Amino acid sequence: MLKRIRIIPTLYIIFLMLPIYWLLTMALKTNAEILGGFSLWPQNPTLANFKTILTDPSWYNGYINSTIYVALNTVISISVALPAAYAFSRYRFMGDKHLFFWLLSNRMAPPAVFVLPFFQLYSSIGLFDTHIAVALAHCLFNVPLAVWILEGFMSGVPKEIDETAQIDGYSFGAFFARIFTPLIASGIGVAAFFCFMFSWVELLIARTLTSVDAKPIAAVMTRTVSASGLDWGVLAAAGVLTIVPGAIVIWFVRNHIAKGFALGRV
Amino acid sequence: MQRKLNQKAWFLVLPVFLLVAFSAVLPLMTVVNYSVQDTFGNNEFYWVGTEWFVEILNSERFHSALGRQLLFSGIILAIEIPLGILIALSMPKKGWGASICLVLMALPLLIPWNVVGTIWQIFAREDIGLLGHTLAAMGIDYNYTHSPTAAWITIIIMDVWHWTSLVVLLCYAGLCSIPDAFYQAAKIDGASRWAVFRYIQFPKMNRVLLIAVLLRFMDSFMIYTEPFVLTGGGPGNSTTFLSIDLVKMAIGQFDLGPAAAFSLVYFLIVLLLSWVFYTVMTARDGEAN
């Protein structure tokens, strides 16, 4: 029974890994080899494509820019979402249900709708082509999501804990920082993971709001298409490198997911 | 959980409210502004009322893009939700096996969307791609740049590849929160595998499934980057979804008025459908309690 059932995840993971494996082999091939013939693995593995990226500032700055605005966005999203999620999970107040759905509705807004107005808004306040502009723009879909996830986790913490802390003489701030936050640490981890993820992978808005100084790696990658033909090898190498930060972040969150979800009302 | 009435809670929500108002309401007002005006350039605008809305709602182009979009989202939900539940059910619950599964499965989620498009473009190409080459070697006529059917199948497989893991992760989280005692009780009662799923696992996954269905619906309805990189909306218009059509209109042709009206109609459709999902699923949630 057990053996038979494990086949499904194994097959699924093979299905997931095949295209990634193919990307990796492409990154290790030269362009001549990619276009010259078909082979399952690189005949003469080369790191030249990676070297191109790591030595050319117009490439590696893309990674630095992306990392900066993603980190900014995650910090902003989580820090504003924490108190709001607490309010939604503990109190009733005027218009709470409508406000919650309105927040979610922003998560539903197609980014394509916002491209032009965002460009005008951030240009007019002089933030165009800065990291903070992209970080703020990405709050559009990350803040509602963070509130939603955190609210779920917080509702899983019994309210008696709040009351006990109050009787014990904790101020609200001290209670929140020293007792409540550790209790939902896994929730914060998961929410931060989602914020990181959606900000890291987004291209349309990030590309619109930047030109040189804050240009994300995803936008740098579209450049190779316009150059003389497609530089498949370098493109594949850049693709492989965009996966790396994500893989590192998942590795950290994995522990939170494993032990944390038992706490939350999921 | 019973929640206390407390109007001061508004202060806790205020930062979120201001931030989202800044990044959503202000831009949205610009769109509304454009949708009721026409321009001859030079920043001169004049009022045209609902003309653009009438034009968009009656246009063949919008109808066909909407039809394709609904079909696409329907197929995506029909495949990814059951598949995600199935995989989550059969995953190991603890130990290094679980960690490896989680990390590997989450990997596609963290690849920038244009890179996903690029990966599949490479993977499915007949000359250099593993999939395209294998299919060609098997004698199957497959070319996603010429045949609309092949383009559709490629985009759907790409999306399944990209997003099923999200459903798996959420369902897995739901499953992990079920105490062992529940399973032991079921065992004593001699419950079948199906009964365990129907009465223990499924109700526990209800909340995460709501999140999964909503997220997958919204995102598949707004899909832009991946099909844009993979097929560019072609062959012909066969994979031109709403977002691709909108960006073509707004940036390609620079028809601000119609594009703004299009945006608002599009947004309202997403909002309406999501609200329906949300209401239906939370209503069922309420019954269960």
Structure overview:
The complex is a heterodimer of chains A (266) and B (289). By secondary structure, chain A is an all-alpha fold. Chain A has two domains: 1-46, no CATH class; 57-260, MetI-like fold, CATH 1.10.3720.10. Chain A has helices spanning 2-5, 7-27, 31-36, 48-55, 57-90, 96-107, 111-124, 131-155, 160-167, 172-183, 185-201, 204-208, 217-226, 232-260, and one strand at 91-92. In chain A, helix 8 (131-155) packs antiparallel against helix 11. Chain A is globular. Chain B is an all-alpha fold. Chain B has a single domain (49-288), classed as MetI-like (MetI-like fold), CATH 1.10.3720.10. In chain B, 74% of the residues lie in helices and 3% in strands. Chain B has helices spanning 9-35, 51-58, 60-90, 96-106, 113-124, 130-137, 148-176, 180-188, 193-221, 225-230, 242-252, 256-288, and strands at 4-5, 37-39, 45-47. In chain B, strands 2-3 form a two-stranded antiparallel ribbon. In chain B, helix 3 packs antiparallel against helix 9 (193-221) and helix 11 runs antiparallel to helix 12. Chain B is globular and about 75 Å long. Strand 1 (91-92) of chain A pairs parallel with strand 1 of chain B.
Summarize the structure.
Chain A has 266 residues and is mainly α. Chain A contains 14 helices and one strand. The longest helix of chain B has 33 residues.
Which features does this protein show?
heterodimer, A: 266 residues, mainly alpha, MetI-like fold, 2 domains, 14 helices, 77% helix, B: 289 residues, two-stranded antiparallel sheet, 12 helices, 3 strands, 74% helix, 3% strand, globular
Q: What is this structure's SSE topology?
A:
The complex is a heterodimer of chains A (266) and B (289).
Chain A: H1 2-5, H2 7-27, H3 31-36, H4 48-55, H5 57-90, E1 91-92, H6 96-107, H7 111-124, H8 131-155, H9 160-167, H10 172-183, H11 185-201, H12 204-208, H13 217-226, H14 232-260
Chain B: E1 4-5, H1 9-35, E2 37-39, E3 45-47, H2 51-58, H3 60-90, H4 96-106, H5 113-124, H6 130-137, H7 148-176, H8 180-188, H9 193-221, H10 225-230, H11 242-252, H12 256-288
Antiparallel strand pairs in B: 2-3
Helix pairs in contact in B: 1-12, 2-12, 3-7, 3-9, 7-9, 9-12, 11-12
